[in-house]
Amino acid sequence: xxxxxxxxxxxxxxxxxxxxxxxxxxxxxxxxxxxxxxxxxxxxxxxxxxxxxxxxxxxxxxxxxxxxxxxxxxxxxxxxxxxxxxxxxxxxxxxxxxxxxxxxxxxxxxxxxxxxxxxxxxxxxxxxxxxxxxxxxxxxxxxxxxxxxxxxxxxxxxxxxxxxxxxxxxxxxxxxxxxxxxxxxxxxxxxxxxxxxxxxxxxxxxxxxxxxxxxxxxxxxxxxxxxxxxxxxxxxxxxxxxxxxxxxxxxxxxxxxxx
Amino acid sequence: xxxxxxxxxxxxxxxxxxxxxxxxxxxxxxxxxxxxxxxxxxxxxxxxxxxxxxxxxxxxxxxxxxxxxxxxxxxxxxxxxxxxxxxxxxxxxxxxxxxxxxxxxxxxxxxxxxxxxxxxxxxxxxxxxxxxxxxxxxxxxxxxxxxxxxxxxxxxxxxxxxxxxxxxxxxxxxxxxxxxxxxxxxxxxxxxxxxxxxxxxxxxxxxxxxxxxxxxxxxxxxxxxxxxxxxxxxxxxxxxxxxxxxxxxxxxxxxxxxxxxxxxxxxxxxxxxxxxxxxxxxxxxxxxxxxxxxxxxxxxxxxxxxxxxxxxxxxxxxxxxxxxxxxxxxxxxxxxxxxxxxxxxxxxxxxxxxxxxxxxxxxxxxxxxxxxxxxxxx
Lengths: 259, 378
Ligand SMILES: Nc1ncnc2c1ncn2[C@@H]1O[C@H](COP(=O)(O)OP(=O)(O)OP(=O)(O)O)[C@@H](O)[C@H]1O
Ligand SMILES: [Mg+2]
Known about the structure:
The complex is a heterodimer of chains A (259) and B (378).
Chain A: E1 8-19, E2 22-33, E3 37-42, H1 48-55, E4 63-68, E5 71-72, H2 78-87, E6 88-91, H3 103-114, H4 119-132, H5 149-160, E7 167-171, H6 179-196, E8 199-203, H7 207-212, E9 216-221, E10 224-229, H8 231-235, H9 240-247, H10 249-258
Parallel strand pairs in A: 3-8, 3-9, 6-7, 7-8
Antiparallel strand pairs in A: 1-2, 1-4, 4-5, 9-10
Helix pairs in contact in A: 3-4, 3-5, 4-5, 9-10
Chain B: E1 6-12, E2 15-24, H1 29-35, E3 48-52, E4 56-59, H2 61-76, E5 80-84, H3 88-99, H4 113-151, H5 158-170, H6 173-195, H7 203-242, H8 245-251, H9 256-293, H10 299-309, H11 312-338, H12 344-375
Parallel strand pairs in B: 2-3, 2-4, 3-5
Antiparallel strand pairs in B: 1-2
The structure holds adenosine-5'-triphosphate (ATP) and magnesium ion (MG).
């Protein structure tokens, strides 16, 4: 099933990425449709972060074609890059918060650059974002070095969502969060998608997120997407890695616990 | 992209009906804030406020928050306020923003300017003491580690020390030679220019020889090393501190002073005298060359005169100072590195402090040595 051009937010075709002798992504193709939440699963070190970073243009590709919102990133001018910066939000696996700015300033940074609003409103909006990701307003004055691992994740999420972007790229947003917070995160993402049609490209190992928020799930193995579709399709997949991912010991214990 | 946002208002008796129309998103951030300014809305006699949402084309957090804020302000005035005709797909976001900004963040009290100024002066003064203690602390820790290493030489990290010697010694050599060569030349040129007025050009050799061997050789090289290698030490240790690498080392049962600092300081202590020696030679060479090309003094005369006026003592005075300079630079650089906190800014700050402090202390130490050598007649 080939989605038509305007429905596709991100299209990756025949992508090859490697470092030295190591080929990490090997002729990989993947489409992310507009307004969908796509979950990407794969083994640790399998190249999920590399795929994400290649899509957003941080890692050079050897071959292939990547289009985001109908535009090829390499052909983008400086002007286009600025508009991309406004239309997408990115949560890096390690947070990548600006260490010399406070939490509130981190969230305000993209807003300050792109929105023409007064300072009090800027403060209110930043606090609103922080509370939406489950932080307390008092955390706004802390510096990144003073945060716990899960708090870092939440601030990074608040910063990624600061401009209410069209697309967000999330690298393991719920790792390091307690299950309640992870559930709140799922609700937030769903709400935003419902309100303004957010497209989400999400690397995750959180089986609950995969089941509850993801419209489709893509499985990455051996540098390729070996299965993609609604979670039910993946559960029915015959691919050995996908099978062991969803029906391994831990997944089974989980299923027992749930039922 | 939707059409421009509009907020139209109609008054029906005690009821104010507002209708939000168009695209309430960050794209129109400049318009939106003015639209919903609560102070421009009519207030008198209004008991109820209703915001009609049916014709909102797009909504994001900014728009939702502004509308929510409007509702809150109305309620604060004792009016009844509510959304009407809220499309189902906006309900989630409106509910989300309904929860936020309920409590103002406890802002940190801002002190009076004057008091803040005095406060920072006081803190800076108190810091002098902590700095001194940090220096002595590091010196003590280093001595302890050296004592331990002397008892069990196998624990010494030779590979690391050699690696750092290569970095701070061998790789620094070209730039040190160049700089000292130029300095030697400049001193000679200035000497010739001014001394020739009295016909005393030959004394240029005295000046170059004594200045270079006693003072400038070691001083220039130390300052260069502080800027080049001391700053690198601080930045390395600081970023290791930032990424909790030093904590990791400590919890694995290693002593960071032994693993990281001793090899670095020792490398400096070995390299700096060598650099000083080569630097002084380059400076003499530069001086000789300028004396020949600019002052017309043949190299043989220069060397002969140098032999006459320079004794080994001058050379010794310069060389004795070198390892102490290295020790000061190394200890300052490493202890500043360990003081780095979590932010990139503090890394920059500590690196600057490290260079400034070590250059300052190098010069102070040089002065102390000058008094010392003068009093023992060297
Ligand atoms: N900058 C880099 N230079 C060289 N190799 C790299 C680089 N970045 C990633 N790799 C390699 O690419 C492979 C894929 O790494 P990647 O970070 O994409 O894994 P991942 O799927 O995100 O794993 P995880 O779930 O643990 O985050 C790994 O073998 C990694 O060593
Ligand atoms: Mg990763």
